What we know:
Layout: E1 5-6, E2 9-10, H1 19-23, E3 40-41, E4 54-60, H2 64-70, E5 76-80, E6 87-91, E7 96-102, H3 108-121, E8 124-132, E9 149-154, E10 162-163, H4 172-183, E11 188-195, H5 202-214
Parallel strand pairs: 4-7, 4-8, 8-11, 9-10
Antiparallel strand pairs: 1-2, 3-5, 5-6, 6-7, 9-11
Amino acid sequence: xxxxxxxxxxxxxxxxxxxxxxxxxxxxxxxxxxxxxxxxxxxxxxxxxxxxxxxxxxxxxxxxxxxxxxxxxxxxxxxxxxxxxxxxxxxxxxxxxxxxxxxxxxxxxxxxxxxxxxxxxxxxxxxxxxxxxxxxxxxxxxxxxxxxxxxxxxxxxxxxxxxxxxxxxxxxxxxxxxxxxxxxxxxxxxxxxxxxxxxxxxxxxxxxxxxxxxxxxxxxxxxxxxxxxxxxxxx
Length: 235
C-alpha cells in the first residue's frame, strides 16, 4: 500500500503511523561497488616480493608503537597496508620482512590476499598475535594468573613455549597466512601473546622480546613506551 493519492496530487497522511507505507514507494538504494584494497607502495619500491629469510607478521589492536621502537630501527618502509597503523617493512642486511597490522577482522581476508605473494616467497614465516589476557581460556588459569604476559604457540620452535590448546585459536591475517603456509607444507610458526596490557609497556613487552630473539629476530633488548603527558582536566 502506497501513500493515498488524489488526481494529480499527493495526500500526506496526517498521522505518522502511516509513514511506513510511504517508504515502500521510495526507490531502492543500490549498494555501491566496494573499492578494491591495494598496497600503497613508497616511491621507487618494487611491487614484487623481496628475497626474504623470515617474514614476521605482528598483529594486534595496539602494537604499532612497540614494533616501530623495537624492530624497525634499521628497516625501510616498503608500503602502507589498507588498514590504520599498518605497514610493511624490510631489513636489507637480515633479509627480514616485517608486516605490522592493526587487528581489523572486517578486512582480514583481503589483507591476507595482498600479503600472500610475500608469504609464498619467504623461507620461513612467523606470526605473532597480541591479545588481551582475558581472552585466554584454560582449566588451569591459576598457572598464568600472576603473569603480565605469557605466550602460547602453534608449531613453536622454542621449547619454552607451550602449545596453544583448544578452545583458543588465532584469527585475522595471522590466521590466514599461517593456514595457507601450513596447507602448502611450508615452515610456519604461529604465536599468541596474552597480556594484561595490550598497548604493551616495559614489563608486558619482555616475554615478547625474549621470544623474538629466540626465533632469530633482531630486535632491541628492552622497550620503553613514549611518555605522554597526562591530561590536566579534573572533574
